[in-house]
Design brief:
Layout lengths: L1 H12 L1 H18 L3 H20 L2 H10 L13 E5 L5 H7 L9 H4 L1 H7 L4 E5 L12 H11 L7 E4 L5 H12 L7 E6 L3 H10 L5 E6 L16 H23 L11
Parallel strand pairs: 1-2, 1-4, 2-3, 4-5
Helix pairs in contact: 2-3, 3-11, 4-11, 9-10
């Protein structure tokens, strides 16, 4: 139930969706000739905020604190396993085409080829089922398994969790699958903007010995603090991603699914 409420609720309040709906509703009020002043206010508010979110550096201001929160480890050695969070496989296209299709977060899974080579004794654990409301024809685990085989990773090194739909389920179900032992060291791979929430959730779920390995950066770093966007669509997409993550941090913390509101190293 939490999964479905989160999906539907966020669709309605996602900044780009909300502002477009606000603008259209305002236009309807103006066209109907009733409540013309509130309608015009809605239209102007929607248009101005779409421009601010789409063209200004606002999206970078939101996403930079998330991306800068965790750094990659200086040395890669002694890790017992690599846990890769889902979100990199487009399950709908993968199911329809019969081959692995990647999302904009594809680096979450492509980085495994390098990490598996640098850590030849580490287990490779991918966690992710179907993170969509309408069931697709494939799970993320199926797509990941195909890519791991292409990378030349031995099947006995790979463990797949194919049921989870969100970050909390990633942490809980993967812990049941892997049964980590005290003293083991684990590398957690996910998008840099998602890493604070992921680390907080895994800690709350009882994981220890976890080290962040952020990938899929959307910015160059602090150099982008005052950088706007030439196209509104790119700015809006980034604003939506960052807004969703901050909202997720708050919701997970308030519902007891994260160790802190803004987990850090």
């Amino acid at each position: 139930m939490f999964f479905y409420l989160a999906k539907v609720g966020y669709f309605l309040i996602e900044p780009s969706n909300f502002l477009i709906m606000l603008t259209l509703f305002g236009l309807l009020l103006v066209a109907a000739g009733r409540r013309r002043r509130p309608g015009l206010l809605m239209v102007w508010t929607g248009v101005v905020m779409l421009a601010v979110c789409g063209f200004s550096p606002a999206a970078n201001w939101l996403i930079l604190p998330l991306e800068e929160r965790f750094s990659r480890p200086v040395e890669l050695e002694g890790y017992d396993g690599i846990i890769v969070l889902g979100g990199a496989v487009d399950t709908i296209v993968t199911g329809g085409r019969g081959d692995t299709a990647l999302t904009n977060s594809g680096e979450r899974i492509t980085i495994v080829a390098r990490l598996a080579d640098k850590l030849p004794l580490a287990k490779i654990v991918h966690t992710g089922g179907q993170g969509v409301i309408v069931s697709s024809q494939a799970t993320e685990a199926e797509g990941a398994a195909r890519l791991f085989e292409d990378f030349g990773i031995e099947p006995e090194r790979v463990m797949l969790e194919d049921v989870s739909k969100n970050t909390w389920e990633n942490a809980v179900l993967t812990r049941k699958l892997v049964k980590p032992r005290p003293g083991q060291k684990w590398l957690l791979v996910t998008s840099a903007y998602h890493m604070p929430r992921a680390m907080g959730v895994f800690e709350k779920a009882g994981w220890t010995g976890m080290t962040a390995y952020p990938v899929d950066y959307r910015t160059r770093g602090r150099a982008d603090r005052m950088l706007g966007f030439a196209g509104a669509s790119k700015g809006l997409r980034r604003f939506d991603v960052a807004f969703r993550e901050w909202l997720g941090l708050a919701v997970y913390w308030l519902t007891g699914r994260s160790a802190a509101f803004f987990p850090g190293p």
